[in-house]
Amino acid sequence: MDETTTILTLGEDYPDIRRAVGRICEDFQGAYWREMDAASAYPLAFVEALTKSGWLAALIPEAYGGAGLPLRAAAVILETIHASGGSAAACHAQMYTMGTVLRHGSEAQKQKYLPAIASGELRLQAFGVTEPASGTDTANLRTRAVRDGNHYIVNGQKVWTSRALYSDLMLLLARTTPREEVTKPTDGLSVFLIDLRELKDNGVEIRPIDTMINHNTTEVFFSDAKIPAASLVGEEGKGFRYILDGMNAERTLIASESIGDARFFLERASSYACERKIFGGPIGRNQGIQFPLARAHAETEAAELMARKAAALFDDGQPCGPEANMAKLLCAEAAWHAGEACMQTFGGFAFAREYDIERKWREARLYLTAPISTNLVLAYIGQHVLGLPKSY
Ligand SMILES: Cc1cc2nc3c(=O)[nH]c(=O)nc-3n(C[C@H](O)[C@H](O)[C@H](O)COP(=O)(O)OP(=O)(O)OC[C@H]3O[C@@H](n4cnc5c(N)ncnc54)[C@H](O)[C@@H]3O)c2cc1C
Predict the structure, then answer these.
(1) What is the pLDDT of residue 392?
(2) Which atom belonging to ligand 1 lies closest to the Cα atom of 211?
(3) Same domain, 195 and 248
(4) 54, 83, 144, 290: most buried, per Cβ within 10 A?
(5) Are residues 325 and 379 in the same domain?
(6) C-alpha of residue 130 to centroid of ligand 1, in Å
(7) Which residues on neighbouring strands pair with residue 277, listed in sequence order?
(8) Do 129 and 109 lie in a common domain?
(9) Is 226 contained in some domain?
């Protein structure tokens, strides 16, 4: 086999993980998620169950107390949660932010934090990149971290920093060299692993944002927040590249959540379409109901292949930017189309909260926008894969 060949597994891979995670999800049925959603509450019991069983530490190497599993295994964990009707949004960031610390963090940072994260003593759930004025244009972010002896002083604002109120640690991207002083706008940005416990109400203020889904997302304000210089991850000024490295993992994992969502919608819709009798027969015999479901199924199966390809390349240490982006795009769209078909299939009952369809439909919509919007994925494919001119 030549060394660039990557093996792609088909079928129900990681059956033990699917079974074990599925068993945990049985304790967190629709009523639990509806209650969390109605109260905009952090699903603490679910996150704790997942942590205790070790699944949230899937990507932490065994040497630091984790399971040391490949990305594909983590994808299976997230897919299983979403297919069960739940949501991994409260804790998935722990999986994809981990890569930045693993690849670029110092040994001291890894020793200090990873075993505590693996055991559940600490949560690394917050990822502060997006800002109100810069949005997708990350290189234009304004939060500044200025070196002052053994510390950095941070000033600025992040928005959509999900889970910041429920996380002990945050991975923060801030500018350390003013934009006017760097050649490339992406230079001069640095990543910090900061301890929010010491900073809350001591230079950092966190305000929840009221959103259409329960995502525990916030605005984070930094006013002269003093962080130890040892919080810097890797080299100063190289942070943008470190964050980009982790984004392929993030896109691949989010894609697998979308596959789980799609499977949830299709399973619920298919069984409802067989049971629900209108005009003397099951609504599922009508092509207007059946075909959108069949099409969404076909899309889901195809999108899943791209997600598996992205994970296989990632796990093999191969470049996977195009595949990770395409997986995120195709899986999010497949989930959305499955959600739409499911909404139509359930008719008026789709709007009744007790069926969980409207909640999952709201949740599935996020992945067309975040962590990267569809347009920006298309711009990436146009520019980097097809060689078309850059639009921005
Ligand atoms: C619930 C939620 C949770 C989130 N969690 C986090 C988090 O934990 N951490 C974090 O850092 N961020 C988070 N985000 C932010 C998310 O990543 C951004 O919302 C997303 O990247 C889009 O940025 P924006 O909202 O500023 O949109 P903008 O950048 O303002 O873009 C608005 C629209 O214009 C389009 N657009 C912009 N430029 C172009 C172009 N050149 N060509 C074509 N179209 C273009 C975009 O595709 C988009 O549709 C979250 C967002 C949400 C809604």
Answers:
(1) 86
(2) 1
(3) no
(4) 83
(5) yes
(6) 8
(7) 282
(8) no
(9) yes
Are 141 and 157 within one domain?
yes
| pLDDT of the residue at 308 | 98
* Rounded distance from Cα 41 to ligand 1 centre (Å): 23
- Ligand 1 contacts (CB < 6 A) are 127-130, 135-136, 160-162, 211, 215, 217, 366, 369-373, 375-376, 379, 391-392
Query: What is the token pair recorded at 113?
Result: 């934090």
Residue 373 is part of which domain span?
241-385
- 115 in the Ramachandran plot: left (φ > 0), alpha (ψ -120 to 50) or beta? alpha
Q: How many Å apart are CA 35 and CA 33, to the nearest integer?
A: 5
Of all protein residues, the one whose alpha carbon is nearest to atom 12 of ligand 1 is 130
pLDDT at 3: 62
pLDDT along the chain (392 residues), means of 10: 79 97 98 98 97 96 96 98 97 89 95 95 96 95 98 98 97 97 96 96 97 97 98 97 91 98 98 98 98 98 98 95 98 98 98 98 98 97 97 87
In angstroms, rounded to a whole number, what is the distance separating the alpha carbons of residues 350 and 269? 10
Phi and psi, residue 161, nearest 5°: -80, 95
With the most atoms of ligand 1 within 8 angstroms of its CB, the residue from 162, 373, 375, 378 to mutate is: 373
E strands present in 196-316: 204-208, 217-228, 232-233, 277-278, 281-282
249 with 321, same domain: the answer is yes
Q: How many domains does the chain have?
A: 3
Which residue has the least CA distance to atom 3 on ligand 1?
160
Residue 382, CB half-sphere, CA atoms under 13 Å: how many?
Answer: 11
Residue 50 tokens, joined: 């997942």
